[in-house]
Task: structure prediction
Amino acid sequence: MQDYRRIADRIAADIAAGRLRPGQRLPPQRAFARRHGLAPSTAGRVYGELVRRGLVVGEVGRGTFVRASPVPTGRALAEPATTAPVNLELNYPSAPGQSELLSAGLAPLLRPDVLAEATRTAAAAGTPEVREAAAGLLATASWRPDPDRLLFAGNARQAVAGALAALVPPGGRVGVERLTYPLVKEIAARLGIVLVPIATDEEGLRPDALAAAHRSLPLSAVYVQPTLHNPTSVTAGRERRGLLAGVLREAGLPVVEDRIWSFLCGDEGGEPLAAYAPERTYVVDGLSKRVAPGLTAGFLVVPEGHGEKAAAALRSGGWTAGRFALEAAVRWIGNGTVARLVAAKREDARARQRLVAEHLDGFAVRADPRAYFAWWELPRPWRADVFTAAAAQRGIAVTPGPAFAVGRSGAEGEAADCVRLGLASVPPSLLAGALRTLAGVARTGL
Result:
């Protein structure tokens, strides 16, 4: 092994052991060369090897920094992936008194006779009671799903997976926004599906860009978030939804519409695409954000005549919901618990967005006052990976923008100087302190 690789190995060991921490600046190459008695060219090869391994990142005019953990996959947004005291990657809201409200709905299930029934296996179609309750929960001003077209998964992510598995063969192409929910990238990889980034604007997915992508090389389906798009918070207007539905209908394309955050908007968030193109829209929603992530259910509304294929996909993937969770959902919806939690979380989201507006004033932050996340376009010369490392050094976990980018398209460059802040999972006082700290880092550098 060449000398420069052995030196790189030692630095890599220091990074792995925590002796060199994320965001820490390495000495300039010439200083490193003098310290270790190396030729400048050898020091350059050491730093190049560390970059190649993904352990450091170099910024022209700023230096070389230890990176944070590798750019997270979707898992980082679904379960703890960091020991940082303040985790702004996870995004699960909780309302005051939530546990007490939930326990009241669970109490009837603990009777032995009821518990025996609630712990049986559940079909993908659930029970008539849960279908009726879920249909009422998902209904909007002018759309109410047919209860007989409802299926149930363990959570909304599994509902997305089931819909895509039913619609797209291995190797098939799915159109998505250029920036999309990272867990969809993981789902696509596991199913052998190719995600095709589609251009967006201030209202989300552009219908003309979708039509052009399908003409260029046919798509099998589309996955879209028209309401409070994660990570940008963009919400499509009524006209845009109608145009998008028209393109989908003309192209004969099915669409998986993710409405997991739409509860924060209510009817202000717009009607689902199923109200415009019911024959081709698969609506995904769930209880994880409305209620709690640990005991939840995902909802999948399927077009007429497509239920069995989607149910088969849920069963084969092991993605069907647990009976206990479905029985709990019926009670939480029926006794008003979900409605009270939704009202509290809408108010909470607005309060947290006010903290963002206060502490990140003057920065380029894209957010909807109803949303639980914010998309921060960092000031120059910050890049997402270096800023993420600097935040981690201060005990704050944020999600670098490239985690949301699809493919090696312009979206990757678009996201390279952005981070997403998840606002829901930490107490407001901690959130305020973290935002102040991040603003200071952005203004002053390391």
